[in-house]
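input
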Amino acid sequence: MNMKDWLRELEQEIERRVDATVRRATFTTADEIMERRVAPNGQLVHFSIRGMLEGSDGSRDPGWMEPA
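output
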């Protein structure tokens, strides 16, 4: 899988999870944790659903949603 497709799939997953959290109106344990994924280029990507909803992008990696 190339980086562009991988990022698209990750963005879609995050959007679904953010939408589900908004519908529930509460965070689950999974929403609270900082998740780590390994991109096809080997880069580690960190994000949290809670971080997405609190006004940041939820990431600790600058430019993490930009294709390499």
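quick obs: Helices lie at 3-24, 29-32, 49-53.
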